[in-house]
Write a structure and sequence with these properties.
The protein is built from 5 helices and 48 strands. With 805 residues, the protein is mostly beta strands. The strands form 9 sheets. The protein has a 22-stranded antiparallel β-barrel. Strand 38 and strand 39 form a beta hairpin. The longest helix is centred in the first third of the chain and has 15 residues.
Length: 805
């Protein structure tokens, strides 16, 4: 009896006792990376006020912080104040916030405090068309699924090209114009089921659990970003907890995952972080759950980071990410004559897979109070392969019987890359700082592809003949990409910042893949009461997907290939952007940017045609180019509007509107709509948090999107039937649009904090109302009318359960 009473009393006390957590981190100078001693760190809206002062190593620790959402303010004499908003404190994990502060230009007696708030790019050289995105942002927006790319679709100037993939269209540009960087290194496409020559995929390899706050750019980015014409994801990995062991486990529609982190040496501050994820869809298939297709997608990915602080502020980190994916799309095991395969051809077995990985070693060190160096060496691997087998079958009774399978296509595209990055940052004084660096990439390329054609009898039940194998790719090469840069930042005053720089690109794959000088310039002027005017301009270039240089139609069935696109140059674009923004004391930001982009050196056909590579970069097909020349042009211009309220008083919202026009000229000289010229996109996102005591919260989030429909032209039925694919006439190419796109996403998440554990149950419903949005025309054999409309993804509920401990 007494024992029962003790349990009841203990349970009652535990239910009402307050659970607290720790906020800690490190504060450094933004340029020199020297630790700042004596920085005042305050967790706002706590009672009594919680805070701390940084020690000799720039570290701070604030204990006993009640669970909830807070803003954390950092202030230091002669430095600009910095405020981080929407910091979520849960019971399961400590909150680790490493920040950098910018020295004020004004003399101490004249200092007027200006505040840099979360959302502004962490790269101090970026003054326009840039934004820092946090892990919290990838979690809270409906439809983001924890992915950086899907999260970026919420921003002004960014639109989706295909709901089934995470490719993004930045201000009317091709999705292949986006550069992905990790820890300063240019990396391959970080997605499962990657298609050569695209920058996206159906499922990301990246995971917000191992990412730190990172930057996203949509135009006029600084000189250190040298291989993109549309946008940049500059990703950073976070360190593991160097004081306590922690973990996170998650089971959901997109994967089953486990992450562990903790100290390697508490005395030295060394830490580890490791993570692994396996596809839940594959588990469901093995359990016999019907997924509506015979294909069984399998993917797995992981990441690690081992961090070792050194004496005198130095640091070594060993890091890596990688993923493997495989999907066999089989029709040979179908017996039902009415069955169709939604995700592949109805007359072939298709085997597709991809692998991607990056490992690297970084070394950073402040040489003195004004100089900081960073060096990274890495190796990356990407391998994409596919095989297709033609199925010969006939009907017996009401079932299919397979009589033969004939290999008709196979390819392996492998890109290995060995990279080195070096940068030196020099802070001359409080007004002026420089940064110079060099990116080197040595490629090891291997491309092999062959195809043949089968001829069946009139009933398609027996093989008449088959052509010899025809090589289309058979290349091995070791080109090098060299990208030096230098840039500066001049703080004319606490109100005015001027940045500039020069970069160059040399790609030895082609004698014309050279861009010797690319200037960049940015100016920002801050008025009183939160008003700011920004300007940016620059010349940008980008390499083509390497496999495009080595294609040969090889109509003669020769065993020796002669690639005919080895003279292609770099994609190039010139950006001009003007912007205004205002941040109110209540945390509401209004931002407007207008831009013009001129594109040139675009690959187009040598013969008169509407073709341009600018229309490629999305979807599940490779490019098979004819003879191309780098003589195409294009232009994009538009207006982006953003109204955003950061999380406070239990809710947040963001409204974005983009009006734009994207056109190009092919070799026939006609100015046409780009495939990605939707002309407008409107987003509304908002969320409300309901608190039930200290430990329980319910979050509701919604996103509503409407955008211009996908482009199409006049169908060439004869050519489409011949090629078994959709072919449009050059006349009125991309002149028409399907009906406007509309979609609503809903996210519901319930969080429960218990002692040292945080449970979160959530569901993210994409396309809540199952709206039928047309994606494109598609060609499908074995039907009465092989040409029909294909729709975007319908209603898709994505559930998850996450446990932080």
């Amino acid at each position: 009896m007494l024992l029962s009473v003790v349990f009841v009393v203990f349970g009652y006390m535990a239910g009402f006792s307050q659970i607290t957590q720790t906020i800690r981190g490190k504060v450094v100078d933004v340029d020199s990376r020297i630790p700042l001693i004596g920085v005042n760190v305050v967790v706002m809206n706590t009672d009594p006020l919680k805070g701390a002062i940084t020690d000799i190593n720039g570290n701070y620790k604030i204990t006993g912080v009640p669970l909830g959402r807070y803003s954390v303010k950092y202030s230091y004499i002669s430095y600009k104040e910095k405020v981080l908003n929407d910091i979520v404190v849960n019971s399961g994990k400590e909150v680790i916030l490493d920040v950098d502060l910018q020295e004020s230009v004004t003399d101490l007696a004249e200092v007027v405090i200006t505040s840099k708030r979360a959302g502004e790019a962490s790269n101090e050289m970026a003054v326009i068309s840039s934004r820092e995105f946090s892990v919290q942002e990838t979690q809270k927006y409906a439809g983001s699924r924890g992915e950086p790319a899907r999260m970026a679709r919420n921003y002004a100037g960014v639109v989706s090209s295909d709901d089934s993939r995470n490719d993004i269209v930045v201000r009317g540009n091709t999705p292949l114009g986006v550069l992905w960087r990790l820890e300063g290194i240019n990396i391959p496409n970080p997605n499962h089921f990657a298609i050569p020559g695209t920058g996206g995929g159906p499922v990301t390899i990246l995971n917000n659990k191992f990412l730190a706050n990172s930057d996203f750019f949509t135009a006029a980015f600084p000189a250190e970003y040298a291989n993109g014409i549309a946008g940049v994801f500059d990703l950073k990995m976070r360190n593991g907890n160097n004081e306590n062991f922690e973990g996170s486990a998650q089971f959901g529609f997109l994967g089953t995952e486990l992450m562990l982190e903790g100290p390697i040496s508490k005395k030295k501050g060394a830490s580890f972080l490791v993570m692994y994820r396996y596809s839940t869809l594959s588990i469901m298939s093995k359990l016999g759950i019907d997924l509506g297709t015979n294909s069984r997608p399998t993917y797995q990915d992981g990441a690690f980071r081992f961090n070792f602080p050194l004496k005198h502020g130095g640091n070594i980190a060993f890091f890596g990410i990688g993923g493997y994916s495989d999907i066999p799309i089989l029709v040979s095991n179908q017996t039902d004559t009415l069955a169709t395969e939604l995700y592949g051809d109805n007359d072939s077995d298709q085997y597709f897979g991809s692998t991607m990985g990056v490992v690297g070693l970084s070394y950073t060190k402040p040489l003195n109070k004004s100089t900081f160096i960073k060096t990274v060496v890495s190796a990356s691997h990407q391998r994409i392969h596919a095989n297709h087998d033609k199925i010969v079958r006939h009907v017996e009774g009401s079932q299919f019987v397979v009589t033969d399978t004939i290999p008709i296509m196979g390819y392996v595209f492998r890109d290995n890359k060995y990279s080195a990055y070096f940068s030196l940052t020099k802070k001359v004084n409080r007004h002026l700082s420089f940064k110079a660096g060099l990116n080197l990439d040595l490629y090891d390329l291997h491309y092999i592809d062959s195809v043949r054609v089968t001829f069946l009898n009139e009933t398609s039940t027996a093989l008449d003949s088959v052509t010899p194998w025809r090589l289309r790719w058979n290349s091995d090469n070791n080109p090098m990409l060299i990208q030096p840069y230098v840039q500066f930042k001049y703080n004319a005053s606490d109100k005015m910042i001027i940045t500039g720089g020069l970069t160059s690109t040399f790609f030895t794959i082609s004698k014309n893949a050279i861009s010797p000088i690319e200037p960049r310039l940015g100016i920002s002027y801050r008025f009183k009461n939160g008003h700011k005017l920004n300007f940016g301009t620059g010349l940008h270039s980008q390499t083509l997907a390497p496999y495009l240089y080595y294609f040969d139609k090889n109509d003669s069935y020769s065993s020796t290939l002669t690639p005919y696109n080895l003279d292609l140059g770099l994609l190039k674009s010139y950006h001009v952007v003007l912007g205004y923004e205002h941040l109110s004391p209540e945390g509401v930001r209004f931002k407007v940017e207008t831009y013009y982009q001129y594109l040139f050196n675009l690959p187009i056909k040598e013969e008169s045609s509407a073709y341009s590579l600018l229309n490629s970069g999305s979807g599940f097909s490779r490019f098979f180019p004819d003879k191309l020349v780098s003589e195409g042009t294009g232009r994009n211009y538009g207006l982006d509007l953003t109204l955003e309220k950061s999380f406070s008083r239990g809710y947040y919202f963001m409204v974005t509107e983009s009006l734009y026009d994207a056109k190009y000229r092919g070799s026939d000289g006609v100015l046409r709509n780009s495939t990605f010229n939707g002309r407008f996109v409107f987003n509304f996102m908002g969320g409300k948090e309901f608190k039930f005591g200290q430990r329980r919260t319910l979050n509701l989030g919604i996103k509503v999107t409407t955008a211009g429909g996908q482009r199409y032209g006049i169908l060439d039925y004869e050519a489409s039937n011949k090629e078994q694919d959709i072919i449009y006439l050059d006349y009125d190419y991309n002149e028409f649009q399907f009906k406007d796109y509309f979609r609503t996403d809903l996210k519901i998440a319930y969080k429960l904090n218990t002692y040292k554990l945080t449970h979160e149950f959530g569901i993210d419903i994409s396309n809540l109302f199952d709206t039928k949005n047309v994606l494109s025309y598609t060609f499908s054999t074995g039907t009465t009318d092989p040409i029909h409309q294909e729709y975007q993804i319908g209603r898709l509920p994505i559930f998850y359960y996450k446990l932080d401990f």
